[in-house]
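To whoever picks this up:

The nightly regression suite flagged DNA-binding response regulator as changed. Nothing in the input moved, so I suspect the structure step. Input below, exactly as stored in the fixture:
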Amino acid sequence: MSDVRVVLADDQALLRVSFRMLIEHTPGLTCVGEAGTGKEAVEVARRERPDVVLMDVRMPEMNGIEATREICQGAYGLPTRVIVLTTFDLDEYVFGAIRAGASGFLLKEVMPDELIRAIRVVATGEALLAPGATRRLISAYVAQPERRVNPLPEMTLREREVLAQVTRGRSNEEIAAELHVSMGTVKTYVGRLLAKLGARDRAQLVVIAYEAGLR
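Regenerated output under the current build:
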């Protein structure tokens, strides 16, 4: 299998150097570019088409939300996944980045092994929902009194059950065990939910479910 190709986007050069060293010394990962602004991050992503971008949420020229939206929802059809980096786990900007297409977020003080695991998980197309920080963030967002509730489209009882399990951060294996179905069946239902709800990945499924009041 080819290496997971990573782009680092952060306005702190020292942090980029640290992450690059970690990535370059990890088998199966390679750093294919760096960016110090959101605009540069989009340009590098378009040029290199990496598997994963580590994206600082607060950057000059174009912030991490806008850059994430350009990469994940822009006209170029990039397959790139974005992991947002932030200093605070309830950063007000992080929810916007996830809504824009990010697959989850990490604190900048993340341990090296957790960062590597996160890159590999997201590169496979999964969302970075465990250990629950992303769900805490979304819960805090949807608890705001001015938030509008967006109803879910019509779906079957089983689809709702699977969506509820995804919302709790359960893996396909855990969902299969909970609902007494096969892994293949779970994958089929998750695929249907992604298509029906217009979601990029499981992180956006969680956002949509919480916005609809499903817990």
